[in-house]
């Protein structure tokens, strides 16, 4: 007798691991490579795992294109992606606004990953134009259908990554809806949709913490945002009480951000740019079948070498002249060996021990601290706006806010004292 459709669906749900069981089955990861457009591709995931990442997401794939275009799939995905020897645990992320195309795309990768994630956080203009990512935040019915389609019909679990609304209560209801639809992990990026590019600002850890405290205790919950240094990962987990922390831009400029063990070795947390560039290059060369890695290499090299390039503009010019079709031999000669030669000369200096110092600053108003790192080591990038970098804007803004609050409290205290004096006079 033919099985009832509902019975088949029940069997699928019974077989796949959900929630906390799924999280534990992949090793209870605490340090996660975020899904980034054209950036968290195979070679970068492999590198990041070597530096301490315990879970990685793919770049955001466009579900309809992935389902219908063989060329798009070939550019974004290859046989090595999701290989259990080098690329797991892995979550594949899609952006979508059509449940059927999303399911078709997810089925093409479900045997090569541990879960499929729905992107509900992309704030870029292309997401607005295509109506996906954070531009679905007002269409809760569609979001529910997208997640439920995968939850009911896919052989592996579905997860979701969201941004927050200005209102805490609305964000909490939104998160509950996403979980009700079937999401087994919830990643919360503590920024508004409008906080992007030069308006990025500081992620709101307090609203992320509020969600964690008010969602079911067994929810697998990841935090995202404000990760500059390895210490921020453990600080975020402790403050938010989340299961893991995800890093995007911090990881791109310094894969050592995931080296959170109790080590004072600066080579762990702030590796030399020549070492990282060589290691990443060799990974791309070894797994050259990954077209996505070849395409992403130039962008990654600019980020890895960012602190060094202003001091060696000849290397910057050479890097700018290369592309995905440039032979590996030319890449190695013009960039990798050139960087190695420069850093080798730096370390040949007699006073290198004095020069090669990583200095931690005082604790700032936002709870963390800044670190002064030599330009030959990987480090965070603070995007300047009108000549002022984000770290200085943030510090100045928080100081102004603190002074304003202090003045308000002072005025309230003086007002209360005045009212008290007036009462005494009346008596």
Automatic annotation (TrEMBL):
- Where would I find the DUS-like FMN-binding domain in this sequence? 33-345
Kindly state which keywords UniProt assigns to this record, in alphabetical order. Flavoprotein, FMN, mRNA processing, NAD, NADP, Oxidoreductase, tRNA processing
Write down the required cofactor(s).
Answer: FMN
Q: Which InterPro entries is this protein grouped with?
A: Aldolase_TIM, DUS-like_FMN-bd, tRNA_hU_synthase_CS
* CDD domains, A to Z: DUS_like_FMN (cd02801)
SUPFAM superfamilies, alphabetically? FMN-linked oxidoreductases
Q: Is Oxidoreductase tagged as a keyword? A: yes
The protein's matches in Pfam families, at most eight in alphabetical order, are given as: Dus (PF01207)
Q: Which GO terms describe its molecular function?
A: flavin adenine dinucleotide binding; tRNA-dihydrouridine16 synthase activity; tRNA-dihydrouridine17 synthase activity
Question: Which parts of the sequence are annotated with region: Disordered?
Answer: 396-427
- The EC number(s) attached to this protein equal 1.3.1.88
Q: Which reaction does it catalyse?
A: 5,6-dihydrouridine(17) in tRNA + NAD(+) = uridine(17) in tRNA + NADH + H(+); 5,6-dihydrouridine(16) in tRNA + NADP(+) = uridine(16) in tRNA + NADPH + H(+); 5,6-dihydrouridine(16) in tRNA + NAD(+) = uridine(16) in tRNA + NADH + H(+); a 5,6-dihydrouridine in mRNA + NADP(+) = a uridine in mRNA + NADPH + H(+)
Q: A GO term (biological process) for this protein?
A: mRNA processing
| Stated family | Belongs to the Dus family. Dus1 subfamily.
Protein's name according to its UniProt entry: tRNA-dihydrouridine(16/17) synthase [NAD(P)(+)]
Write down the species: Torulaspora delbrueckii
């Amino acid at each position: 007798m033919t099985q009832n459709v509902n019975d088949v669906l029940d069997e699928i749900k019974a077989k796949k691991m959900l929630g906390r069981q799924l999280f534990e089955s992949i090793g209870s990861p605490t340090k996660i490579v975020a899904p980034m457009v054209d950036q968290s591709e195979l070679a970068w995931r492999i590198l990041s795992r070597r530096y301490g990442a315990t879970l990685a997401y793919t770049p955001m794939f466009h579900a309809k294109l992935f389902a219908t275009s063989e060329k798009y799939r070939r550019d974004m995905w290859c046989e090595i992606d999701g290989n259990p020897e080098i690329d797991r645990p892995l979550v594949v992320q899609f952006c979508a606004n059509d449940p059927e195309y999303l399911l078709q795309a997810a089925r093409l990768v479900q045997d090569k990953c541990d879960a499929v994630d729905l992107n509900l956080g992309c704030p870029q203009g292309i997401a607005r134009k295509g109506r996906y990512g954070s531009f679905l935040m007002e269409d809760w019915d569609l979001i529910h259908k997208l997640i439920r389609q995968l939850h009911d019909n896919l052989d592996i679990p579905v997860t979701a990554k969201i941004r927050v609304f200005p209102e805490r209560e609305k964000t909490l209801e939104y998160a509950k809806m996403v979980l009700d639809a079937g999401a087994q992990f919830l990643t919360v990026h503590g920024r508004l949709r409008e906080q992007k590019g030069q308006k990025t600002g500081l992620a709101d850890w307090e609203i992320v913490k509020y969600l964690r405290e008010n969602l079911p205790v067994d929810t697998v919950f990841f935090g995202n945002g404000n990760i500059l240094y390895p210490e921020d990962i453990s600080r975020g987990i402790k403050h938010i009480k989340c299961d893991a922390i995800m890093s995007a831009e911090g990881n791109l400029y310094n894969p050592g951000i995931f080296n959170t063990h109790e080590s004072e070795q600066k080579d762990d947390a702030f590796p030399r740019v020549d070492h990282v560039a060589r290691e990443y290059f060799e990974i791309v060369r070894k797994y050259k079948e990954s077209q996505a890695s070849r395409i992403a290499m130039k962008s990654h090299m600019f980020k890895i070498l960012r602190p060094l390039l202003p001091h060696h503009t000849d290397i910057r010019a050479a890097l700018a002249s290369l592309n995905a079709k440039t032979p590996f031999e030319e890449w190695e000669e013009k960039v990798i060996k050139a960087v190695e030669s420069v850093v080798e000369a730096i370390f040949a200096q007699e006073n290198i021990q004095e020069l090669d110092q990583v200095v931690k600053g005082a604790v700032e108003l936002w709870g963390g601290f800044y670190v002064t790192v030599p330009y030959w080591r990987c480090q965070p990038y603070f995007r300047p706006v009108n000549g002022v970098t984000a770290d200085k804007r943030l510090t100045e803004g928080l100081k102004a806010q603190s002074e304003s609050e202090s003045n308000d409290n002072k005025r309230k205290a003086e007002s209360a004292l005045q009212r008290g004096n007036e009462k005494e006079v009346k008596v």
